[in-house]
Specification:
339 residues, six-stranded antiparallel β-sheet, Kinase-like_dom_sf, Transferase(Phosphotransferase), domain 1, Phosphorylase Kinase, domain 1, non-specific serine/threonine protein kinase
């Protein structure tokens, strides 16, 4: 266990994001388990992307946005909700192709999330199954959460790459995105269409067929049209088209299938933690008698050392202030250089 900023206890590593490792952690302040993303790069571009990600506060049931952050020396972590069911990539690896109705529910949730993300002026730029997390709902109604905003961009703001450089994952990027076009919401819709094709075919993104016998296919073909002008103009319009397929019944028809999709809890069990303070030290036991050994009385510190805690606190405050000041300076310099 590693403690960050006197608050987050990092236990086991559960994944890797675009900018760092993701840990299951215990938040001593809130008394609950969370996911903590720890920055693993120290260059200016990564620091700025990290700052931008933690600044996102999109409150939506299908968006996994940071809920807070903390810094300790050269370590910075973002705190977010803990999602136990793994990713859509995990589900596809376990189950293969998904039933049309199940895929339609996940697509609807993804498009609802994109509608909220785009309403905040943000383009995600890296929609793919590995970045779509699932709650552990078993064979019931799935619940999807869009995660990892490390390469997202706020439209009309300075960016960290040259205009002609493409950002995203090959196989999911729209053709114009791969050519370095300005980020816009229809790039995310194209990626959502590729995700949909993967769900109903079970095939990798670079091996998708030209056609597939599914009532979802015409809709997915529209989302992934090479010409952005022929795609739905927004996530809201795409959701309206999806509803017209008749697959969103509100029920769970996949349960009638011999092998329905099941989202398992992918995280190992951990001891229950409810204390906000650090865990108590075990009482020592005499190996001969089996009796507990009483702890010796703690001697009172001389008055001359009473200022040491204040000096240590001041040092921590100064260190944290210097770190945050460095981040602010990096942001200011990059904005000036890229403006």
């Amino acid at each position: 266990m590693e403690l960050v900023a006197g608050r987050f206890e990092l236990y086991d590593r559960i994944g890797d994001g675009g900018m760092g490792r993701v840990w299951r952690a215990f938040d001593r302040k809130s008394g609950r388990w969370i996911a903590a993303k720890q920055l693993t790069h120290s260059d200016a571009a990564m620091v700025l992307r990290f700052v931008r990600e933690q600044a996102l506060r999109i409150d939506h049931p299908h968006v996994l946005a940071p809920t807070g952050w903390a810094a300790d020396d050269d370590r910075v972590v973002l705190a977010m909700d803990l999602v136990a069911g793994g990713s859509l990539e995990t589900l596809l690896g376990d189950h293969g192709a998904l039933p049309d109705a199940y895929a339609a529910v996940l697509l609807d949730q993804l498009l609802a999330a994109l509608e909220a993300i785009h309403a905040h002026g943000v383009v995600h730029r890296d929609i793919k199954p590995a970045n779509l997390l699932l709650d552990a709902t078993g064979t019931g109604m799935p619940r999807l959460r869009v995660s990892d905003f490390g390469v997202s961009v706020i439209m009309d703001e300075p960016r960290l790459t040259h205009t002609s450089m493409s950002i995203g994952t090959l196989g999911y990027m729209a053709p114009e995105q791969a050519r370095g076009a300005e980020p816009e919401p229809r790039h995310d819709l194209h990626a959502a269409g590729v995700v949909g094709k993967r769900m109903i075919t079970g095939q990798p993104s670079r091996g998708l067929p030209e056609n597939w016998p599914s009532p979802l296919w015409p809709f997915l073909a529209r989302l992934t049209d090479p010409d952005p002008r022929r795609r739905p103009s927004s996530a809201a319009d795409a959701r309206a088209e999806l509803r017209r397929t008749g697959l969103l019944t509100g029920g769970t028809p996949w349960l009638a299938e011999p092998d329905p999709p099941e989202v398992f809890d992918q995280l190992a069990a951990l001891p229950r933690r409810t204390l906000i303070d650090s865990p108590p030290t075990p009482t020592p036991v005499d190996p001969g008698t089996g009796r507990r050994i009483a702890a010796p009385a703690r001697a009172q510190r001389p008055a001359r050392n009473s200022g040491r805690g204040a000096r240590k606190t001041a040092l921590i405050v100064l260190t944290a202030g210097a770190f945050l000041g460095a981040i602010a300076l990096v942001v200011a310099i990059l904005v000036i250089l890229l403006g």
